Amino acid sequence: MTSQVRGVQLARLLGQWHSLPGRRRSPDYAALAGAVRGLLADGRLPLGVRLPAERELAEALKISRTTVTAAYRQLRESGHLASRRGAGSWTMLPGTHRVTSSGLWTPQDDVDMIDLGVAALAAPAELVPAARAATEDLPRYLGGAGYHPTGIVELREAVARGYTDRGLPTSPDQIMVTSGTQHALDLVLRLAVSPGAGVLVESPTYPNALAALAARRARIATHGLASDGAGWDADLLLGSIRQGRPKLAYLIPEFQNPTGHLMAADLRERVVAAAHAAGTDLVVDESFVDLPLDGTSLPPPVATFDRHSRVISIGGMSKPYWGGLRIGWVRASAPQVQRLAAARVGVDMASPVLDQLVAVHLLAEAPAIVAERRAQLTVQRDALLGALTERLPDWRVAVPRGGVTLWAELDGPISSALARAAEEVGVRLAPGPRFGLDGTLERFLRLPFTLPAAELVDAVGRIAAVRYDLDRAARPQWREPAVIA
Over the chain, what is the mean pLDDT? Predict the structure, then answer.
């Protein structure tokens, strides 16, 4: 699934790459090599991608081929490029260094710890009344065995209505209830991805999705997202699908985790068309679709543009409602749902009936619950942004229009070191490399705004206090990492 980046595409990613003027100006070839290394470190340029030929890049950048040749040579010497005569040059990291996120960490229940590793809200007040109402409904199901592989019909009807209200007509036969969104993804991968199959994901992306793909022994390729508000580079994303022809692509188009980007409607349509032409299935994670902020209008669901059953949508109750309610779902064609249900029988048989009944009652109250969630998140997001502006002004953050996370670009490649130092002062962080595949993204940090505003401001104060002591900090002791969700 090796893909190639064209000269014009790489030139666009490089932007203003020239060395700065001055008495100590470095040669242009060194500045170009440094800019390419920066793209690799940020995850915007994936590993294993073939770079354009020297002449092609020189024409795109309007510089001499000699400069490009020298830059490529420096990249080879630093271990960031591997070349073979007649075959081209591929991106890599020095010493074939790779760090893979396992996605499974042991939680530490410390009441004094401000946990910014988990991007999820506490339960809404409506949960307890919904649970009481569900127990009253339960006797209707006690006469049967209790196994419903696709879910109880009233929950499937409620989920289907939600899609229909979004402009995507859906029947209950197209819905399968799962034990959370992660479970939905795992079931889809079991059905669609065989060992060694190519899968395209965004970079950065959700760590537990990478863990699920690793468990299936998939060959993962990445599409790098811009750290500013631009998000997806349409040309590069579509090119990755057309060239690599992956078996499956996993995308988070609504308030992407962790960057918060929102994919435009025209790109959604083009991605579906490219996937159909390449024979690629699309798994669209809609975990945050209920959480637009600032009155942001949502584009049509990706599946709206699907005419060939290429799009499988997954979602759940964790982000807008509560992570402890393990209810998720898959929306696909009715035959796909039946195949998923058959595969599920060998995993967990069915989701708990009582939990599904709780979900039915919560979805009936969705307008009020979700409106309150959005108001709460807006206040908390703004408090976090304000604290970062005041205490860490050198960090760059694009303001998300929805979701629950900020993706902060730090003032240096210090994410993992900062996370270790912050733990010493009672703040648990999710460093950038957790959201990538190759140990890159050290200049980035995910910061959820799901805690009360006062705790977020306190956390930023503690982070700022340790940020400036990193160079003098003693070597930290190893400790068990925490859950990132």
Answer: 89
Write the single-letter amino acid at 258.
P
463, 467, 469, 473: CA torsion to nearest 10: 80
CA-CA distances (angstroms) from residue 336 to 115, 152, 192, 227, 310? 38, 18, 10, 36, 10
| pLDDT single digits (tens) 41-63 | 777 788 778 898 989 998 988 99
What are the structure tokens assigned to 425, written together? Answer: 């002062």
More confident: 227 or 479? 227
With contact defined as beta carbons under 8 Å apart, do 443 and 41 qualify?
A: yes
Closest CA to 325 of 291, 283, 363: 363
Strands 430-431 and 444-448: antiparallel
- Going along 46-174, which residue ranges are E strands? 81-84, 88-91, 114-115
Structure tokens at 335: 């035959």
Task: Spell 334-348 as b/e; 16+ CB within 10 A means b.
Answer: eebbeebbeebeeee
Residue 415 CB neighbour total at 10 angstroms = 22
In the prediction, which pLDDT does 407 show?
96
Per the model's pLDDT, the better-predicted residue between 42 and 355 turns out to be 355
Q: Which stretch of DSSP H or E encloses residue 420?
A: helix 415-424
State the DSSP code for 80: S
Tell me 302's DSSP state. G
Q: Per the structure block, which two tokens stand in for 116?
A: 């910014």
Q: Is 237 left (phi over 0), alpha (psi -120 to 50) or beta?
A: alpha
Report the greatest alpha carbon distance in the chain. Answer: 84
Kindly state the tokens that stand for 100: 């893979």
Phi, psi (5° rounding) for residue 358? Answer: -60, -45
By residue count, the chain amounts to: 485
C-alpha to C-alpha distance for 42 and 135, rounded to whole angstroms: 50
Entry pTM = 0.81
Sequence-separated (6 or more) residues with CB below 8 Å from residue 40: 47, 80, 91, 93, 440
